[in-house]
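Project outcomes to date are best conveyed with an example. Our students and postdoctoral researchers have been running inverse folding experiments weekly, and each run begins with a structure described purely in tokens. The record below, which covers 209 residues, was selected by the lab manager from last quarter's runs and is presented without edits.
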């Protein structure tokens, strides 16, 4: 894959509040964007159309490994490159502790952690063979963010997500140094999008120059 041309990004969870802000800002900075969703395909298509260029919508259930891998390959084939993977997708279902099951934890982990791992692993396989490499951005929770009652499955999976980001950063630094991992704390959507685009701009200027 070449180093020139329009940079391309896949935004997982692209129809969420942060995902929408990230996709719109990347498009405004000259990126092509693949907007991922699970079920909100009409919304994802509208957002991709607003992004312009070669942007398009993709759908996959993050609990399904094969579907996630196919989406990443589809995006790479469509753009001919993948400069950024932004992981905004998350599941959060508040459940009283006495009603929380092991299945609730597994479902949150499947979406928030395992889905992110699979997407990152597949994206890195492409990025590692690009001259400019690529960047994987994890949107993580802020340190000392107050816990809410009924939020055990979500909070536990989000803590694991931060660990996943750290582990992958170490793995790629040792195996594929051109693949960079960044962590951005979730906050107000516009501010979070600004922070993500700032991270990406450090290594992938608009237009791929």
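After processing, the design step wrote out the following sequence:
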């Amino acid at each position: 894959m070449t180093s020139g041309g329009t940079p391309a990004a896949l935004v997982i969870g692209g129809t969420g509040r942060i995902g929408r802000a990230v996709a719109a800002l990347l498009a405004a900075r000259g990126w092509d964007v693949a907007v991922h969703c699970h079920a909100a395909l009409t919304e994802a298509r509208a957002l991709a159309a607003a992004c312009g260029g070669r942007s398009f919508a993709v759908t996959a259930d993050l609990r399904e490994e094969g579907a996630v891998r196919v989406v990443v390959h589809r995006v790479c084939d469509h753009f001919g490159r993948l400069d950024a993977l932004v992981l905004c997708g998350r599941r959060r279902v508040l459940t009283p502790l006495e009603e929380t099951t092991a299945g609730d934890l597994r479902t949150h982990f499947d979406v928030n952690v395992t889905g992110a791992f699979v997407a990152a692993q597949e994206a890195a396989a492409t990025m590692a063979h690009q001259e400019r490499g690529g960047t994987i951005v994890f949107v993580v929770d802020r340190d000392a963010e107050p816990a809410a009652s009924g939020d055990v499955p979500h909070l536990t999976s989000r803590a694991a997500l931060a660990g996943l980001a750290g582990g992958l950063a170490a793995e790629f630094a040792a195996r594929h140094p051109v693949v960079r991992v960044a962590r951005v704390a979730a906050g107000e959507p516009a501010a979070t999008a600004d922070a993500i685009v700032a991270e990406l701009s450090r290594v992938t200027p608009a237009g791929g120059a």
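DSSP finds six helices and six strands in the chain. The first strand starts at residue 8 and ends at 12. The training component of this project remains on track.
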